[in-house]
UniProtKB/TrEMBL annotation:
Chain's role: Specifically methylates position 2 of adenine 2503 in 23S rRNA and position 2 of adenine 37 in tRNAs.
Further remark: Reaction proceeds by a ping-pong mechanism involving intermediate methylation of a conserved cysteine residue.
Location, primary (coarse class): cytoplasm
Residue numbers binding [4Fe-4S] cluster: 157, 161, 164
EC numbers on record: 2.1.1.192
Name of this chain's protein: Probable dual-specificity RNA methyltransferase RlmN
Catalytic function, reaction form: adenosine(2503) in 23S rRNA + 2 reduced [2Fe-2S]-[ferredoxin] + 2 S-adenosyl-L-methionine = 2-methyladenosine(2503) in 23S rRNA + 5'-deoxyadenosine + L-methionine + 2 oxidized [2Fe-2S]-[ferredoxin] + S-adenosyl-L-homocysteine; adenosine(37) in tRNA + 2 reduced [2Fe-2S]-[ferredoxin] + 2 S-adenosyl-L-methionine = 2-methyladenosine(37) in tRNA + 5'-deoxyadenosine + L-methionine + 2 oxidized [2Fe-2S]-[ferredoxin] + S-adenosyl-L-homocysteine
Source organism: Microbacterium aerolatum
Residue ranges of domain Radical SAM core in the record: 143-392
Biological process annotations from GO: rRNA base methylation; tRNA methylation
Subcellular location: Cytoplasm
A GO cellular component entry from the record: cytoplasm
GO molecular-function term, one example from the UniProt record: tRNA binding
Gene (name only): rlmN
Amino acid sequence: MTENSRIRSTGPAKTQVRPRTEGWTQKTDESGRPLLQFASPKRGKPPVHLADLTPAERAEKVKELGLPGFRAKQLSTHYFTHYTSDPAHMTDLPAAQRDELVAGMLPPLLTEVRRLETDKGDTIKFLWRLHDGALVESVLMRYPGRITLCVSSQAGCGMNCPFCATGQAGLTRNMSTAEIIEQIVRANRLIANGELGGKKADDHSMERVSNIVFMGMGEPLANYKRVMDAVRIMVAPQPDGLGMSARGITVSTVGLVPAIRKLADENIPVTFALSLHAPDDHLRDELIPVNSRWKVDEALDAAREYYEKTGRRVSIEYALIKDMNDHAWRADLLAEKLNQRGRGWVHVNPIPLNPTPGSVWTSSEKDVTDEFVRRLNDAGIPTTLRDTRGKEIDGACGQLVATTEDEAAAAAVNAAQPR
Ligand code: SAH
């Protein structure tokens, strides 16, 4: 059966809604293709920070500041193992030059604007302001035996996915390597201060972030170099980096095929996740506009190659949206396309849609969700429903920024009104 005949054969049994029929209009470029922003708009660069530099470059920069190169190692130890940028804590550095050295090497990058907590304090969402006023988010989550941080890689996003709050806001700019790393260091500092709740008395796991997911704002593979430099710093042994395990780092993408191939050749075994959300081009063209460049089959082939080159099992992400992509035939088609490419190389992570404010779409009903998961599992594809941690604190990508920008806009309007 072809994809089109399947679409027709769904008949009246289950409704089909699509972004376009639900009032969403696809933005297009001059040539009429779906609008995608791959290049970061030019803006003032964030200050250069120790975490933007290689160990050799760090020593070089410290020498430029008039101190011997070995001071760079001491600064790295403060930053990557004690999670501090506060000169007052650095008593092993010469008091006279300490402030200048810290100002030159560890400039402030993220100002905390807001912190929201839920799940009895074991989920914390941060809203950060960057040096130029751009806003980004990260979400910290404690699970039994691991602590996961969801990080942003861009301020905004150029991929324009209709169901995603960040996608609708457009791309402000790429984040620097150090801005990405600083999200982790700030989270580690908070954990070290005992501010992340939910720890059980018998949990002796190390008290710092163990897992990173690039599922905050932005398309990580559209900011490839800075994201990969950040990954290299995450896995570099302390004190040069954070000493994390590559396996605990998940890079999630809409499916930039050439970049997926490049990632597979990096020899850093990160976990790879593909945001598929539809197994047929017909729907995916609208749901994930980058599908106009690389089709479902091309993205799946690249994902399979990732597995072949790295031996790492790939994740397929699938936000279940009521009557849009949750049809039983789509579960079957997805299973078929994955099984066509071999066994044991992939698992599927459906997640109920977290509706963005004002969204006309909602998450799938429970019985539909269960049926979708069951069909995939029955076809031999390991499938686990992902939890929706932090839903009540606008856990979905970009929602906190959207709310804050709305509030700022409302405040500006109020301020402008005569009293
Ligand atoms: N740009 C990357 C990573 C950021 S988004 C990517 O698309 O993979 C991380 C995941 O959250 C993606 O799978 C994305 O499709 C999903 N997502 C975005 N908005 C969502 C929403 N409202 N509800 C559920 N998942 C959402």
